[in-house]
Amino acid sequence: MPDVVTQRQLNRTTLERQFLLERTGRDPVDVVHHLVGLQAQEPPDPYLAMWSRLEAFDPHGFGARLTDRTFVRIVVMRGTIHLVTGDDCRFLRPLVQPVLDRELRIHQEYKADLAAMDLEPVLAFARPLLAETPLPGSKLRAAIAERFPDLNAGAAAYACRNHLALVQVPPRGVWGQTLQVTNTPAESWLGRPLRTDATVDELVLRYLAAFGPASPADATAWSGLTGMRAVFDRLGPQLRRYRNEAGKVLFDLADAELADPGIPAPVRFLPEYDNVLLSHRDRTRFFPEAASTAFDDARFFKGTALHDGLVVATWWIERDQPHTASVLHVTPTVSLDRAARRDVESEAERMLAFREPGIDRLTVEVSAR
Q1: CATH of 287-366, one of 3.40.50, 1.10.4030, 1.20.120, 3.30.300
Q2: Which residues, including other chains, have CB under 8 Å from residue 199's CB and lie 6 or more apart?
Q3: Where are the domains of the chain?
Q4: Over 60: is that where the pLDDT of 266 sits?
Q5: How far, CA to CA in Å, does 49 sit from each of 189, 216, 222, 258?
Q6: Is the pTM of this model over 0.85?
Q7: CA torsion angle for 341, 346, 349, 351 (degrees, to 10)?
Q8: DSSP code of residue 246
Q9: pLDDT per residue over 24-55, tens digit each?
Q10: Among 331, 368, 325, 323, CA closest to 348
């Protein structure tokens, strides 16, 4: 009978592997590699994610790694934009192709046009065009419309997004800078081909190292890939089995240790999209039952706050014009006692100072619950 892992052990173990129990002094490139990338639809999100994980985080130095091509922004897990290392771009992008193929088949607006479209001439046209000059989507659509006037240019451009392994070129995603999404093929940007030997088995082992213990359904929620049960069965000799308190079987690396459930979990502020909260089908290790409904009902927010390892609040920043003052609004999703509110407010002040550099008037407001 597999050992039982408690909900609190799952919480602390995942937080430890995510560097959210204690900030780490490791090199940011190593951290991004270990985490198998950072969710990055919102350009500032990876910076807050790293600030909450690193002892001394330099956002300008981190952003420079996009410029020197150590990091890239590309669609990978779940068909969403991630910031990953160049090596992981080459590893991950071929593996998630089935996710992107499925997205094209079910796309509400484009699926009919794409089903009837011969994509080979479109891709053969777009690949060298984007390699020579990175283009935003509007200019790619215009070029396709001119070359293929009988095709739905929007559908064809979307197919290029899903078939050509396009990276978003900087300064998109660079701290303090901006650029509309402008794409070029990863192979030309990195000067290296995508890997042809990447396996889902390797992907799952890396997932467990950063997010385990977990189930095949959890791995699917993280990656978007189906068929995970067969992968876990194949990896059986390399894995250890547990049961959670509900009796569900979870898997972990055979040599991985569980965290001490008694370790304190300090307050951490997370961005709107952070994989630690998005990478399990069963998210109860992070969401107290009382918080789940309140979280779902939140009108709008730009991130969450953890206290004692659990989601206890959402947050957003209000800025005046011409941006001389910023207010961080923190909305608890559960009742916080006086000590918890004090801890949340203290970390909120630090986070606001990081997120709003150069702004003199910074205010934190924690609403009542």
Answers
A1: 3.30.300
A2: 95
A3: 1-255+264-281, 287-366
A4: yes
A5: 25, 25, 17, 23
A6: yes
A7: -100
A8: T
A9: 999 999 999 999 999 999 999 999 999 999 99
A10: 331
